[in-house]
């Protein structure tokens, strides 16, 4: 039984409650002001954009948007929290009760969304001198307040996720949704998308839930699925030897593949939530919610289902997770088979959004693939991915040497120049063939299809 808690850093121009710039990678403590450093007498002013974007995300997750939401103070003491409380939302969050569809190879799964609420991020603690930046064994710790006060949306799912792989696919599709909404970079390695998982196990057929543990801050899709898999196994083995799982927060260490306790879990009572007296409740107008609803792109689950008959489930899922599915139809419109187009988009496409790809050029490149030497094909794929028509036209003219007569002549030369290798191959050393293929390719300056050369050489040497 897996439930996920996802934090998404919004890429608003300014922070949640002050005018400091919201950005990544600056000198530490250069983006701070009396408000986000919690000087006495300062007052928070909510960021309208952050509230609108949270509503938008809530709508994309099928949530109800509350007519009235309240910011609460969540108290805890830690060096990364100057106020000693975080402004968050408690029992009146902006978005509640949605669901998100995750298609699988065997039908689709609907993951319930408990809530999505808006809060401010804590500052970043940097532990110096310890192993791998961990607090354990560190000589001292520094605090960078640039991140303090950055708007953060927390999304909490029902414990509906049933496998580590499903957790990974849910997260990939959620990330793609967030990126398409244009509200966050959602990059796990930079921490603008963070995921914790609540994990418990039970016997087949058992109803109800056993004690759960919380896995913290797994910072890649792979670590999320590996970490959950390790924890499921740990819990199962505890029950198998007749012990009980203890509720605690755990850290997954990707280098050892093991989970270790981080701290005991706080309960809501410990935080002494109370409404922030310096802020009025958020009451989004119905017209605003309807306007935002119209800006929501089609959810990824439906797009995967639509592409599946043409390209199969796994390619459809990869395409949508990578956000490359909108390019598929424009390419197939130029007479390319959907599977070939999908494979191109997943394996050969190099566009990164800096220049527009040209579907017609991509289609031409795919069609000429068999006639092109591999290196030339790769360069053409790159040029077509950024719409460089001149380069594609030049490259597509460099077709491979397909004239068997010319290849035969070069093979004659190579066989004559490499008598000992030829003898070794005929004596049973299959591996030598690769070397001989390489020699022929060199003579063609890479302008032959190595598979064709391989065939011709084999025919020559095996007779
Ligand atoms: Zn500030």
Structure in words:
With 463 residues, this protein is of the alpha+beta class. It folds into three domains: 2-293, no CATH class; 324-397, no CATH class; 404-462, Arc Repressor Mutant, subunit A. The chain is 38% helix and 18% strand. It is built from 15 helices and 14 strands. It has helices spanning 48-60, 164-181, 221-240, 286-293, 300-311, 313-321, 328-332, 338-348, 359-368, 374-385, 389-397, 404-417, 419-426, 432-443, 450-462, and strands at 2-9, 64-65, 71-75, 85-89, 95-104, 107-120, 124-128, 140-144, 151-157, 193-199, 213-216, 249-253, 258-263, 274-275. The strands form three sheets. Strands 2-5-6-9-1-10-11-12-13 form a nine-stranded mixed sheet. Strand 5 (95-104) and strand 6 form a beta hairpin. The longest helix is centred in the middle third of the chain and has 20 residues, at 221-240. It starts with a strand and ends with a helix. The mean pLDDT is 91. It binds zinc ion. The site of zinc ion has 8 residues, from loops.
């Amino acid at each position: 039984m897996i439930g996920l808690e996802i934090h998404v850093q919004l890429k608003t121009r300014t922070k949640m409650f002050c005018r400091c710039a919201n950005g990544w990678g600056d000198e530490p403590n250069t983006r701070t002001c009396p408000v986000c450093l919690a000087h006495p007498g300062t007052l928070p002013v909510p960021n309208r954009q952050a509230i609108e974007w949270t509503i938008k995300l809530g709508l994309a997750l099928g949530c109800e948007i509350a007519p009235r939401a309240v910011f609460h103070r969540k108290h805890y003491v830690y060096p990364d929290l100057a106020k000693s409380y975080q402004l968050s939302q408690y029992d009146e969050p902006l978005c509640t009760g949605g669901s998100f569809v995750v298609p699988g190879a065997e039908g689709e799964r609907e993951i319930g969304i408990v809530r999505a609420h808006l809060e401010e991020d804590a500052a970043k603690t940097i532990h110096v001198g310890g192993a791998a930046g961990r607090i354990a064994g560190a000589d001292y710790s520094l605090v960078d307040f640039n991140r303090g006060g950055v708007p953060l949306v927390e999304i909490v799912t029902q414990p509906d996720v049933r496998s580590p792989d499903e957790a990974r696919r849910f997260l990939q599709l959620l990330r793609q949704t967030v990126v398409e909404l244009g509200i966050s970079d959602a990059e796990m390695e930079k921490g603008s998308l963070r995921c914790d998982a609540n994990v418990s196990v039970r016997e087949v057929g058992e109803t109800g839930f056993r004690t759960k543990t919380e896995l913290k801050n797994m910072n890649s899709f792979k670590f999320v699925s590996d970490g959950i898999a390790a924890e499921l196994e740990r819990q199962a083995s505890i029950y198998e030897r007749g012990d009980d799982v203890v509720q605690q927060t755990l850290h997954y260490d990707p280098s050892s593949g093991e989970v270790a306790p981080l701290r005991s879990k706080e309960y809501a009572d410990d935080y002494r939530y109370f409404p922030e007296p310096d802020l009025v409740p958020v009451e989004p107008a119905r017209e605003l919610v309807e306007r935002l609803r119209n800006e929501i792109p089609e959810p990824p689950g439906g797009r995967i289902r639509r592409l599946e008959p043409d390209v199969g489930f796994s390619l459809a899922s990869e395409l949508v997770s990578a956000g490359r599915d909108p390019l598929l139809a424009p390419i197939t419109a130029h007479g390319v088979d959907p599977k070939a187009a999908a494979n191109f988009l997943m394996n050969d496409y190099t566009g990164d959004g800096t220049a527009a790809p040209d579907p017609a050029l991509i289609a031409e490149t795919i069609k000429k693939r068999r006639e092109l030497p591999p290196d030339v094909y790769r360069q053409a794929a790159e040029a077509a991915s950024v719409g460089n028509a001149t380069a594609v036209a030049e490259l597509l003219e460099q077709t491979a040497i397909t004239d068997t007569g010319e290849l035969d002549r070069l093979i004659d030369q190579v066989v004559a120049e490499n008598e000992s290798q030829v003898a070794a191959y005929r004596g049973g050393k299959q591996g030598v063939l690769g070397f001989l293929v390489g020699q022929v390719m060199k003579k063609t300056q890479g302008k032959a299809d190595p598979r064709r050369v391989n065939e011709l050489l084999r025919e020559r040497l095996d007779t």
